[in-house]
Amino acid sequence: MADLNNRVAIVTGGAKGIGKAISKELAKNGVKVVINYNSSKGPAEKLIAELKEIGGEAYAVQADVSNLDESKKLVEEAINHFGTLDIVVNNAGITRDSTFKKLSEEDWRSVINVNLNSIYNTISAALPHLFKSDAGRIINISSIIGQAGGFGQTNYAAAKSGMIGYTKSLALELAKSGITVNAICPGFIDTDMVREIPENVREQIVAKIPTRRFGQPEEIARGVIFLCKDSEYITGQQLNINGGLYM
Asked: Are the CB atoms for 186 and 143 separated by under 8 Å?
């Protein structure tokens, strides 16, 4: 699958942050991109315009991927618009950080639903179409927190580590079909979420990263391209893009 030209991808949560960078990088490589968003209509429409300016083909679909019926609608609209599907990037995610003693049931369930249940929802709808592709790709954006844990992040860590287990198990099931399933585990990436961390805490985090900097969304996006183009013999793996913070 060295040539990505005219392949079709769905990127959940694809309008902002890491998802936006992934959508842009896919489009630059000739992929027709279905940009999924839940509430970010403005950023999605702006990104569509940006991609069209560079000759990319993109289509935005509003859907809450924590909901099975809306996830089915997302896939249906992708097929209706582009006719096929080759790549699914499960990127949608939220945080609701709190120590476990203070963690509400609502914040537990919302994070699990958006970050973990959504990948069941999207892939169960997308898989019949991926089987028709000659090189289907499923890429799950997990997190270093799913590997190492995080203070005040039991809900987020549970969801992101669940993605890793899901990735390994589904990779085993789909290996004979030619569909690869991999996870990317970003470290601390320079997005709006990280910029909201107090400056003194940001400095403490950077001091612990061997490369002494936050990652860039584009670095995660290039990891997605690698797994799309060169992963015929790579499946069930975690691609750690974290500056050496977790090895």
From this structure: yes
